[in-house]
Automatic annotation (TrEMBL):
PROSITE patterns: RRNA_A_DIMETH, SAM_RNA_A_N6_MT. It is found in: Cytoplasm. It comes from Vagococcus humatus. This is Ribosomal RNA small subunit methyltransferase A. It catalyses: adenosine(1518)/adenosine(1519) in 16S rRNA + 4 S-adenosyl-L-methionine = N(6)-dimethyladenosine(1518)/N(6)-dimethyladenosine(1519) in 16S rRNA + 4 S-adenosyl-L-homocysteine + 4 H(+); adenosine(2085) in 23S rRNA + 2 S-adenosyl-L-methionine = N(6)-dimethyladenosine(2085) in 23S rRNA + 2 S-adenosyl-L-homocysteine + 2 H(+).
Length: 292
């Protein structure tokens, strides 16, 4: 236990040994609190029949806890300087594979097929680099990987946007993009003091559980998400203004849009932020019956 990578003293020793300097541009804030790491593993509900993908292992603080608790760990690290450190710090854990890759450019399907020696369920557990939280989340959600759960640390503000309900300020296309696929809840809040260097914002552990079927039934998925994004494009504008900007302002489009809104019993003067995900689905399904 004393040899944990994530204790403040061992972390300091490792950083010194390698003369490591943090790159802010890569979102490098390392966890140094074993208690937080244990809680993350607990929330993720890992066991010896679970495979784990980690994004950004850093010096291996979280990785070693994942290695102890799961079957295999596949970690993507973009910073070449850390690859050398990880080879050392993670040497006691033969069930860990670190790939020197930008996770956003990684072919997740082939990497997992190559590295994981079983088809156990896959969970993503990570302390995300905050400058690309959303792209990473979407990369996993939109991949065809059989990921059953994501337990990810991010800025609390982004976690709040993901779990937001209609009518709140934080509700937007990100809430819908994630809630469409996953059941989302904040597991716990992490204070800045748990990191070196300390970030400027509070962090939250978000737990996302894959739904067996998407939250709503849509006829054309891509079009549904386009309608959602268009409806939030200018938050202060009405649905009518945002949707005519997206679909077209000619007379026939306007007539069709009017009819669709009426069919769905949605007042054109409402703002996108007041629509539930069900209402967006209904609306997109109705629009897709007439748009070319
Ligand atoms: N997991 C470690 C911890 O909890 O202490 C480090 C977390 S730190 C917030 C984010 C890590 O992601 C850094 O190690 C950083 O180098 C890495 N990273 C940044 N961008 C990345 C990318 N595009 N692909 C893979 N790793 C990346």
């Amino acid at each position: 236990e004393n040899k944990d990578i994530a204790t403040p003293s061992r972390t300091r020793a490792i950083l010194e040994q390698y003369g490591f300097s943090f790159k802010k541009s890569l979102g490098q804030n390392f966890l140094t609190e074993p208690n937080i790491l244990r809680k993350i593993v607990e929330v993720a509900g890992l066991d010896q029949e679970t495979n784990v993908i980690e994004v950004g292992p850093g010096i291996g603080a979280l990785t070693e806890h994942l290695a102890r608790a799961s079957h295999q760990v596949l970690a993507f690290e973009i910073d070449g300087r850390l690859i050398e450190v990880l080879a050392d710090t993670l040497s006691p854990y033969p069930n860990v594979t670190v790939l020197h890759q930008d996770v956003l450019k990684a072919d997740l399907a082939s990497a997992t097929k190559e590295v994981f020696d079983t088809s156990y369920p896959i969970k993503v557990v990570a302390n995300l680099p905050y400058y690309i939280t959303t792209p990473i989340m979407m990369h996993f959600l939109e991949s065809n990987l059989e990921v059953t759960e994501l337990v990810v640390m991010m800025q609390k503000e982004v976690a709040d946007r993901i779990i937001a309900s209609p009518g709140s300020k934080a509700y937007g296309s990100l809430s819908i993009a994630v809630q469409y696929y996953m059941d989302a809840e904040i597991a716990f809040i992490v204070p800045k003091t748990a990191f070196v260097p300390q970030p400027n914002v509070d962090s939250a552990i978000l737990k996302l559980t894959k739904r067996s079927t998407p939250l709503v039934e849509v006829t054309e998925e891509d079009f549904f998400f386009e309608v959602v994004r268009a409806s939030f494009k200018q938050r202060r504008k009405t649905l009518w203004n945002n949707l005519t900007a997206f679909l077209g302002k000619d007379d026939s489009t306007k007539l069709n849009l009017e009819a669709s809104l009426k069919e769905c019993e949605i007042d054109p003067k409402r703002r996108g932020e007041t629509l539930s995900i069900e209402e967006f689905a209904q609306l997109a399904n109705s629009l897709s019956t007439w748009r070319k």
